[in-house]
Amino acid sequence: MQLNPLALSLGDPAGVGPELIVQAWQQRAAEQLPPFLVAGGQGVLADAARAQGAGVAIVPIDEPGDALGVFAEGIPVLGAAGTGWRPGVPDSDGAWLAWESLKWATALARDGKACAIVTAPVSKAALTAVGFSFPGQTEFLAHACGIPESQAVMMLAGPNLRTVPLTIHCALADVPRLLSEDLIVSRGRAVAAALTRDFGIAHPRIAVTGLNPHAGEGGVFGREEIDLIAPAIARLRSEGIDASGPHPADALFAPHKRNSFDVALCMYHDQALIPVKALDFDSGVNVTLGLPIIRTSPDHGTAFDIAGKGLAHPGALIAAIRMAGEMATRRADTRTVDA
Fold this sequence. Notes:
By secondary structure, the chain is α/β, with parallel strands linked by helices. It folds into two domains: 1-147 and 291-339, 3-Layer(aba) Sandwich (Isopropylmalate Dehydrogenase); 153-288, Isopropylmalate Dehydrogenase (3-Layer(aba) Sandwich), CATH 3.40.718. The protein contains twelve helices and twelve strands. It has helices at residues 17-26, 42-51, 67-70, 92-110, 124-129, 137-144, 175-178, 181-199, 224-238, 249-252, 269-280, 315-338; strands at residues 6-9, 36-39, 58-61, 75-78, 117-119, 153-157, 162-165, 205-209, 242-247, 263-266, 285-289, 295-298. Strands 3-4-2-1-5-12-11-6-7-10-8-9 form a twelve-stranded mixed beta sheet, sandwiched between helices. α3 links the parallel β3 (58-61) and β4. α8 (181-199) crosses α9 (224-238). It starts with 5 loop residues before the first strand and ends with a helix.
């Protein structure tokens, strides 16, 4: 069964996104990547390819389906040539292009013309300066798909570890106020369902961290574990979900512990992201669960400081493309069986 191509958004054109897209296409055969197209940015990608001496062709296409026939020849790109590549020099024109590319790629996935979306890194500051009103791409995707932001769940996935932060882009001081038993339960349900549907794990094991040092030490260092986290775990287990904890976060990610769970449900941003980036920086993928479409992204930023210098590593983008393709195939197989 031939799926529609993946849709890649360009990301901020002043960042490493364009050169990583070129490198990913160059490694498509060795990495067995599914066909993809890029929503906009012909001029940027052409400049990025020339700057790397890659000899990579940029192939303009009119319809998403055209990408399947030309993917072996070059990078299929929708839209006009537009602006050129100015690595390391973010500006408002580039932010607008990143936003337009994100909207376009999202619409293609939402309308079924692309089997998934893979988003290259953007600058939240640059987007905000041109009127982007969302905390990040995840929240925009939820809005574009017509679902509440609270239903979009961020999961970080690498070869060694998967984690989900319960609270994301907020001040650390606000985390205890934002946590609730219902939030933990709803996230646990969404994660368990997604791991079964999109990752083929029949009975996911969810390890839930504590918030405080030593998971509160029986209330000595805080009561969130007693009042919120343990009751949420009990509710999940009563629903047949294999949840455990609260686990002290400083010990959960040790090598001898990582094989005991399939995903760690963490209380705040850095508690989830630090271990993934320490273990899988060049292969970590940001996956948005809970959407009607599939979305992945490399788990790193725009890296303006190294853009255009030949230092950027495509591993995380390649992993994001591969994972999006695998998820799309599983969903298609499930629909075929159900039919």
